[in-house]
Amino acid sequence: MPRRPPPSRRRAPRQERAQATCDAILTATARVLLKDGYEAASTNRIAQEAGVSVGSLYQYFPSKEGLVTALMERHRARGLADFEAGLVPLASQPLPVAMRALIRQVISVKREDPKLHQVLHELIPRMRQWGLSDVYSQRLFRLVRAFLAPRFEELRPQNLDMAVFVLVTSVEALCHTAVTDRPDYLEDESFVEEVAALALGYLRPEAVTATSAPPRRVARERVTRM
């Protein structure tokens, strides 16, 4: 049986000063995880890094697991809020235009703090062991589904839920791997084009053919000249 999920907080901060203390503790948690890794991190080490007593830390966070959970919640909530805000002006845009903009938004979120993103991503399996559900991934699926639903008649896949799963999982995996293995791709607009071509090829193959033809002709001309 999975372990009982650890609460992320003992109590919520009610005053500005208390909120500032919580923020400092979570920021220190991120620094310690980046420096020492999860196994070597401890509440004593995190309290020292934050400049607070261990007793103050335990007022708000019950354990190291609770700290990591709260840090994950803060990190992913910010990224999801940015992504959701970016969806609003794209509702009326053509799918190829909107898809490129969404991929840029995903990359922007991951590029903001790539090392922390990597550390937290590696800790997701531990969260599952603790019995925690990934509410932010669930929310992301719902947002993308709501975005695609009005366009469903123009999409190739017949199962919208499956299409959202395939699309989100593929784009997330590509962007995450770029963060870890090819960070230079995150600064390259052609990476956006390649991921968009993959996504559009799955959703609407004819959209890729229409938008990709000019670049391919240019590429062939260059080969001929060589």
UniProtKB/TrEMBL annotation:
Transmembrane segments: none annotated. Residues 42-61 bind DNA. This is TetR/AcrR family transcriptional regulator. It comes from the Bacteria. Residues 19-79 form the HTH tetR-type domain. PROSITE patterns: HTH_TETR_1, HTH_TETR_2. It comes from Corallococcus sicarius. GO terms for molecular function: DNA-binding transcription factor activity; transcription cis-regulatory region binding. InterPro entries: DNA-bd_HTH_TetR-type_CS, Homeodomain-like_sf, HTH-type_TetR-like_transc_reg, HTH_TetR, TetR_C_15. Keywords: DNA-binding. It holds the Pfam family TetR_N.
